[in-house]
Amino acid sequence: MNSIPDTLEGLISLEYRHGFETSIESDEIPKGLSEDTVRLISARKNEPEFLLEWRLEAYRRWLKMTPPTWASVHYPPIDYQDIIYYSAPKSQKDGPKSLDEVDPELLKTYEKLGIPLHERAILAGVAVDAVFDSVSVATTFKDKLAEVGIIFCSFSEAVQHHPELIKQYLGTVVPVQDNFYAALNSAVFSDGSFVYIPPGVRCPMELSTYFRINAKNTGQFERTLIIADRGASVSYLEGCTAPMRDENQLHAAVVELVALEDAKIKYSTVQNWYPGDKEGRGGIYNFVTKRGDCRGARSHISWTQVETGSAITWKYPSVILRGEDSVGEFYSVALTNHRQQADTGTKMIHVGRNTRSTIVSKGISAGFGQQAYRGLVRMARSATGARNHTQCDSLLLGDRCQAHTFPYIEVKNNTATVEHEASTSRIGEDQLFFCRQRGLSAEDAVSMIVNGFCKEVFKELPMEFAVEAQKLLGVSLEGSVG
Amino acid sequence: MNPFLAQCRASFEAQATLEAGVAERGQRQAEWTRFEALGWPTTRLEDWKYTTLSGLEKLSLQNSVEPREEVKGVPPSLPLEGIPANRLVFVDGAFQPNQSMIDRLPEGVRLRFWSDLDAQERERFTHKMAPARALTAFGALNGALFTEGVWITVDAGCALEAPLHLVKVSRTGQRMSHGAVLLELGENSGLTLREHCVGNTDQPTHSNWVTAIELAPRARLTLVKVQQEGLLSYHTAALHALQRAGSHLQVFSFALSGALGRNDITLRLIEPHAECVLKGVYRVADRALQDFHTSIEHDSPHCTSDECFKGVLEGSGKAVFNGRVRVALDAQKTSSRQSNHNLLLSDKAEVNTKPQLEIFADDVKCSHGTTVGQLDEEQWFYLRARGIAADLARTLLIQAFTLEIAEAIPHVGVREEVRHLLSGTVEENDHV
Does residue B7 lie within any of the structural domains? Predict the structure, then answer.
């Protein structure tokens, strides 16, 4: 990219914007993992017997499993005994009932991130269930949501107040033995969000959780469960930022979505965790299992993700299309810069008749970034009339980055239609020249072209997120052109 | 140990005692050891995920150990009459001098056979075959068990107008045939090689050939392979090509029959401005399986590749396509296209396809596309509305789908012949 002036070189060294650490006393349990750790976590959270049994079952299965090696990511082996599996801010003991009671240090952290809780909640009409490390400390708009019968709370609250729902749905989409990280999560998950939308209710606002990893050496094991009952609809937003640190952190979350008849779930993520420094030191390992289950006829699950952070991303939000005429969607923008590695994609499992799925994946690889799209489209014998369209494009910036595509397509029904297209290229010199000639600076031109490249995905994001995503992409990219 | 392996071992031991030199025995032993180390391919291996060899496992097949074992009277149903000159005939892996016609080849083309080579040449031959044999476990098996090998060299500047025919016949049932082909083209030379894999036995056979190709700068090679073996035949084949600067390779592979076919094709573009075209058609009948694993490796800048495979599946036929394109670091200005299209004509047919791109350079243009579907209803309606009978309309559409691949064959005679074959299979199947 000779046409870019040298001044851009300076931008490459751009450091992580959200790198700071809030010092709050944490309530931690000792490092290491054993049955006792699992029992201890369960006891701290005052969980019912069935959940403890479920955790132990997961732990025992996990012991027999080995970490997956098929993904095209490289990292030193993780010592699972060197991780603290539970950490709760001490202030939680009193239990803040309103924003005023929340630790001001915490609120400041959010402010630094540009999300003043109350202001944001009021202005944008967003209810925020903010997760600070492992325990939810503030949940807003709960009353308003309760009026229409929506349950939106932290996972541990749901365990206390709605154990029957947990018992009915937990682990039905991602079973404990699903994979190594899902099993680990099932054994030691700390907290997360729980959403239940009753039949026929359309959630009046966008639900949102801001995840944040704070205390040192604390692996976060979030567990999210969203259930949309018959005819219900909900849009859920998840966003992440984390302070700068030196040691790699493991994050193994599990997200389960259940859509019953005519229900609709839209799950959007902006992920901006610490990617490590320029040499790739100290970033977050993000090994996530996300899966949606379109159980009912005409149900609809849509995943939208913007992945710019993490040192390693291992993530395949999937949809099982069981119900007739159900719809699955996956829209993704993934950006890897410096030494980031991402192995991400989706799985669309078509089981029901006339099910439809769309996959749009945009990968941008810069610096020494490594990126792989790994997808599966499976048309089961019963998926009569099913359709899939997949488009995955990669954009390469820099001659040391990598982009790989591994789409698995398995078709067992002849009435099913599957289309897959993929392309890989770099920004065209002619496109750049065109913009530069019209007076745009090199970085503006690149930013514009990249944003155009991602537009198809951004337009799927809710308003609040679309703005943030574009900004994020701009910041993450600025350093990479050269 | 399954019956197939047991028989392979027996055959290997028999062969080892026959072999003259100590060096050859060592080479065969090394390959056998490698084969055993790799293990029998099962669906637990990523490369064999969708292809089960349970049918082959149960067979106990004999291997030909005599490289010139003469077979009298090749059955008239085999298309030898249609192949006038420049033909090399192998029956069950053994070379047939009397059936072959190689006396009219120009001076620049030399043919040598493994059994005639001296120890030094054998070592070179083995060395050059190694990358092709390294592709799969069956390649190692070939190295241990092969009956005969042919080494074809075309001198620099020599261009053959007429195609050279390589006929591999599975004549008798319960036999396996392991053969090796080494093709070396000198600078600015040109050759069209037409490979016939035929067999008319109604008993199971296994053909396991390995082909290695080396193209010197600006050499041009067209390879057209057609698999038309018996309904119970197993076909495994590995092809490895090395392309130097400005060379041009076109590989056409048509898998038209057989119980199970597995082709592993690796084309490596190791010097700038090399070009390759890889095209193929698989027609999979009821209960059959065809598997293509291709890999195009751009190791050098300014190379282009164009790949297209089309499949037509009937009954409970199954097809596997794994197309890998790898662009190495610094292989800038690479241009690569890949596509795979599948027609499912039955509700029991199954396709597993994986077009795989691995890119380590930035200034590249790579694309791939895949489709799986049925015959286009609009096209069907167009023909029906013009009074064309249902089965003819169907035949026409399938023909149009597959003939596109044959149209790209540069040699007129070979093109016409393959066109005829493709049209033929459709009609035959319709009468069944």
Answer: no
Residue whose pair of structure tokens reads 């065209």 in the numeric block: A428
The verdict on B296 and B392 lying in the same domain is no
Contact criterion met (CB < 8 Å) for A420 and B355: yes
Are residues B432 and B422 part of one domain?
A: yes
Task: Residue window 60-79, chain A: list those with CB within 8 Å of chain B.
Answer: 70
Among A377, A387, A414, the strongest candidate for a mutation testing the B interface, having the largest count of B CBs within 10 A, is A414
B354: nearest CB among A396, A407, A412: A407
How many CB atoms lie under 10 A from the CB of residue B77? 8
Q: Which residues of chain A have a pLDDT value below 70?
A: 1-28, 87-142, 209-219, 240-248, 464, 471, 474-482
Using the Cβ of A418 and the Cβ atoms of chain B, whether some distance falls under 8 Å is answered with: yes
B371 touches A: beta carbon within 8 Å? yes
Using the Cβ of B137 and the Cβ atoms of chain A, whether some distance falls under 8 Å is answered with: no
Q: What is the Cβ-side half-sphere exposure of residue A205, based on CA atoms within 13 angstroms?
A: 25
CA dihedral A307, A311, A313, A314 (to 10 degrees): 180
Which 46-105 residues of chain B touch chain A by CB within 8 A? 46, 50
- In terms of domains, do B371 and B386 share one? no
Q: Which of A377, A401, A409 to mutate to test the interface with B (most CBs of B within 10 A)?
A: A409
Q: Minimal Cα–Cα distance from B151 to chain A, Å?
A: 37
Q: What is the pLDDT of residues A138-159, one digit of tens each?
A: 455 667 788 889 888 888 888 8
The predicted model scores a pTM of 0.83
Letter string b/e over residues A215-247, b meaning 16 or more CB atoms within 10 A of that residue's CB: beebbbbbbbbbbbbbbbbbbbbbbbbbbbbee
In this predicted model, what pLDDT tens digit does every residue of B196-241 receive, in sequence order?
Answer: 998 877 889 999 999 999 999 999 999 999 998 888 999 999 999 9
Same domain, B352 and B293: yes
Q: How many domains would you assign to chain B? A: 2
| Residues B366 and B387 placed together within one structural domain of the fold | no
What is the pLDDT of chain A when averaged over all its residues?
78
B359 contacts chain A (CB < 8 A): yes
DSSP state of A474: H
Q: Touching check for B376 and chain A: CB below 8 Å?
A: no
Residue B101 lies in a domain: yes
Q: Which domain holds residue B226?
A: 61-376
Give how far B252 is from chain A: nearest CA, Å.
Answer: 23
Residue in chain A closest to B46 (alpha carbons) equals: A70
C-alpha to C-alpha distance for A191 and B361, rounded to whole angstroms: 42
Residues B413 and B277 in one domain: no
* Environment class of A149 (CB within 10 Å of its CB; exposed 0-12, middle 13-18, buried 19+): middle
